[in-house]
Amino acid sequence: MKTFDSFLAATFLPMMLCAGSAPAQQSAQDMYRRIQDAAASRHNGDTDEGLRAKINKEAIVVKIKNPIKVDRNMMPTALPGLENEPYKVGIIARMITPARIVQVMEDDCLVIKRYDSSLILRGVETDGLADGQYIKVSAPVKITGTESFETVLGARKTLFVLEPVMIRVDRVAENASRERVAAEEKARTERLATEEKAREAAKAADEAARWRTWTRSGEQFEARFGGLVSRWVVLVQEDGTKVKVHMDELSDEDREWIRNRKR
Hints:
Number of domains: 2
Order of helices and strands: HHHEEEEEEEEEHEEEEH
Largest sheet: 9 strands, mixed
Shape: rod-shaped
Radius of gyration: 40 Å
Number of helices: 5
Helix content: 25-40%
């Protein structure tokens, strides 16, 4: 596995220096030694877990300088961690774990390293930051593209570019959306209430219709229709008593009423 020190010596430390310049090469070597010594002192005697806890505690939260603005409706519902997503242009995620500064490039640009990946971070305040420090980015970040460059060793490097994101809220559209949702919910509630009233009314009408005057062998009596089993009609009297009457015993009008209910 490549160490951070060997990677740094081969690529980024010489990146902004002039090839062939003896003072520049000496400066790069001095910087390399300083970062190597700092890295060794940080790792000395620490377990991986202890080192992670120390790095997380000591990491500096960088100030956002030039964020890109993204409409709220373009943001994912839940922001994933950048370490859980394959790097590709366009994704928006959070930098959950700290990153190490490989090189402070410009007043709003850093080259950082996260795990085995090196990235360019733009749009942050770099005053007071130095190579080798650990940083955190509180805002979501978006991979906006890639940048390529040639190192003094002649290698061609292409890195993904991260930029902090500021969520842009259209207050007028948001209020209109909120009002539309409220109106839809009100209409839904009113529709359900109307349907419930209609069901209750139909049930009451059906219940009322079941009570009628029946004629059995010329004798009339009040009862509620309780159902039909084969050709036996179940009639429920006011006291709850159930009486079975054969269809042939009922009047023509009663039989017609029962046939209409079965349709």
